[in-house]
Amino acid sequence: MIDLPQKQIFSVLFAAGEPVETVKVAQAIGADEETVLRYLPILQDNLEQAGVPLQLLRLGDKLQLSTLEAFAPVIQDALALRRNVPLSQAALEVLAVAAYNQPVTRALIEQVRGVDSSGVVNSLIEKQLLEEAGRLDLPGRPLSYRTTAHFLRTFGLDSLEQLPPLPGAEGSDAPLDAPPAADSPLAPIT
Amino acid sequence: MIDLPQKQIFSVLFAAGEPVETVKVAQAIGADEETVLRYLPILQDNLEQAGVPLQLLRLGDKLQLSTLEAFAPVIQDALALRRNVPLSQAALEVLAVAAYNQPVTRALIEQVRGVDSSGVVNSLIEKQLLEEAGRLDLPGRPLSYRTTAHFLRTFGLDSLEQLPPLPGAEGSDAPLDAPPAADSPLAPIT
Amino acid sequence: MEQLSFRTAEFEGPLDLLLHLIAKHKLDIYDVQISALLEQYMAYIRAAQDANLELASEFLEMASRLVYIKTVSLLPRHEEESRQLKTELQGQLLEYQVCKQVAAGLGERGQRFRRFVRAPEKMEIDTAYRLTHPVKLLCDAYRDAVGRGKRRLPPPSQAFSGIVARRVVSVSSRIVHLLKRLYRSGQASYGSLFETSTDRSELVATFLAVLELVKAKRITVEDGQVRFDRTHHSPDASTMGELRYD
User: Fold this and answer.
1) Quick check: C204 and C164 in contact, CB under 8 A?
2) Which of A20, A77, A79, A121 is most worth mutating to test chain C (most C CB atoms within 10 A of its CB)?
3) Residue C246: HSE in the Cβ half-sphere, 13 Å Cα cutoff
4) d(CA C94, CA B175)
5) With an 8 Å Cβ cutoff, is C115 touching chain B?
6) Which of B30, B1, B29 is nearest to B13 (CA)?
7) Which residues of chain A lie closer than 8 angstroms to B45, CB-CB?
8) Distance CA A14, CA C182 (A)
9) HEC readout, A20-42
């Protein structure tokens, strides 16, 4: 049976996700490191007996809970399915701003959209639609981003030159007249 | 005893960390959604009997594993987590309007609250309690927002149907004697 | 004047403040007396300004809205509009009250549920996006992003400083001023009453003073001329019915 200290250790390791120093676990449950280490094989046994498909890993002076190798394929399947979720409006906007202004900083994307966009940028990198394009020679040396070859495939383009001209480019009084003024947030960073 | 499908479900949810759509879990383990949903109480029972201090959460059409409330203090200690700052009055008001009227525009939120709410909305998006829900087919094509699975978890709800009835609505003993008009922004969508 | 104990209290917005005032002064939310509410509201605004609290523009908007409702209610033959304006405000107040109650309920729930979840396990997963889209989607998104970003740029702060820092002119002081002036001259052109006013607060106060005087039958306004009615005496503003602006 999994007793209270084991439950505490388990809870901490579960919530941490990443490896946690054994000493921190010990402090939190009010025990010393040896006690925690002595508990580990017992907890591992208990999990196995109950059929919980997890393993307790000891990595140097750290501990971690992880899934079993055997279940990697089913996990991969389930999580890879995320790729099939259509891009959100926010993601499309970030991509569009990046596509027409690359290389582009996050600050510029946020200036154009008027909202924090860090989460969206990261998820687009994960989807391999955006990639980092080095630091710009601007104050603070900000990271810049550009679209990828995978981005071109996604939108059926052979090259960036095939991006259609922006709406409002001809004869409209919209602020999108191309080329944007040099001091506009829409001006490509040069 | 935790059998293979249960192990697969558990592994997927453990590895994902974030809420996973039930339908994706189902696809990955080669079953249909109902089958997965039927497994959930059995898996939860098995975890409890084995003394595994985890909770299977149902968040709308998603699933997630979380720790038990009883272990919050020890986890906070070990991971040196800041005691989570309670949400501000403004944030709670915005969530209240959004929860009962989603998808909701910022304009409607501001109409109910009588103050500019863009900052609060953005910070709730950052906290992943709100998310964009596309543009509405209204003049100006305004962006709309909805609450997230994280919102459900934060407030201990399985689904939006579990939101308490509005004060003043039928059958409640709340102080307002007149139910909000049917076209009121706070009337639940029927 | 009454001690303003709520001087440092924080309000989410004008509706929050109004609900507070209604509860505090035991006003009927279903039949709000606009005069009393306006008076309490202005007292708060003044107190906040004295304490150099930054007031969101919405507070001032609400002040002018209350003034407007009061104005309409003073005008003869505008009962219907006045009733409608009040119903609108009442509806908004009730709705906001529900919003506050729901928010409080959520806040309580939020404190009760403290569960932790994990970050996703790190593993090699092909996360490349799989769907394809027409490129038009990008153009649309670009237009949306630019439009919204522009709208969200906040107005410069100096746009508000003038409004907030402005002195508030009391209506009763304008009544006294008008009575004195008309008592001497007997009549004046309507426009001339406003000629010397330099700021908005004084203009509004002068206008309300005219309305009050018309209502009390101390003056008549006809063909752009304002006449003092000598059948009434005592140019003492304190005798005027419901005037308690200060």
Assistant:
1) no
2) A79
3) 12
4) 11
5) yes
6) B29
7) none
8) 82
9) EEHHHHHHHHCCCHHHHHHHHHH
Using DSSP, state whether C213 is helix, strand or coil: helix
Chain B interface includes C162 (CB < 8 A): no
The helix (H) or strand (E) run that includes residue A165 is none
Residues of A in contact with B10 (CB under 8 A): 52-53
Given an 8 Å threshold on Cβ–Cβ distance, is C123 in contact with A156? no
Enumerate neighbours of B (3 or more CB pairs within 8 A): A, C
Is C106 within 8 Å of B156 when comparing Cβ atoms? Answer: no
**Lookup: tokens for C186:** 């007997």
Strands of the C219-222 sheet, one edge to the other:
C187-189, C225-228, C219-222
Model pLDDT, residue C124: 62
The Cα-based distances of C52 to B43, C41, C59, C120 in angstroms read 60, 16, 14, 48
Q: Which residue has the higher pLDDT, C116 or B5?
A: B5
Do B14 and A54 form a contact (C-beta atoms < 8 A)? yes
The two three-digit tokens of residue A103, written as one number: 């290389």
Measured between CB atoms, does B134 come within 8 Å of chain A?
A: yes
What number of residues does chain B have? 190
CA–CA separation, B26 and B36 (whole Å): 6
Q: Count the neighbouring beta carbons within 10 Å of the beta carbon of residue A146.
A: 17
**Residue matched to tokens 């001259």:** C185
C188 forms beta bridges with: C226
Residue with tokens 């924080």: C10
Sole residue written with tokens 């919003």: C99
Test A128 with C151 for CB contact under 8 angstroms. no
Q: Under an 8 A CB cutoff, do A157 and C135 touch?
A: yes
- From chain C, the residues in CB contact with B100 under 8 A are 102
| Residue-level length of chain A | 190
Cβ pair C131:A15 closer than 8 A: no
Inter-chain touch B114–C92, beta carbons under 8 Å: yes
In the structure encoding, which two tokens stand for residue B102, read together?
């989603």
CA-CA distances (angstroms) from residue A33 to A8, A36, B78?
A: 14, 5, 13
For A130, phi then psi, to 5°, come to -125, 155
Measured between beta carbons, which residues in chain C are less than 8 angstroms from residue B156?
A: 109, 112-113
Selection from C26, C29, C39 nearest residue C91 by Cα: C29
Of residues B50, B78, B122, nearest to A50 (C-beta): B50
Q: What is the pLDDT of residue A176?
A: 39
- Per residue of chain C (246 residues), give pLDDT as tens: 344 444 445 788 889 889 888 888 888 888 778 888 898 889 888 888 887 777 778 888 888 999 998 888 888 888 888 888 888 888 888 889 899 989 988 888 887 777 778 777 766 666 777 778 888 888 888 888 877 655 555 544 444 444 444 566 778 888 888 888 888 788 888 888 887 777 777 888 888 888 888 888 888 888 888 888 877 554 444 444 444 444
Residues C220 and C229: beta-carbon distance below 8 Å:
yes
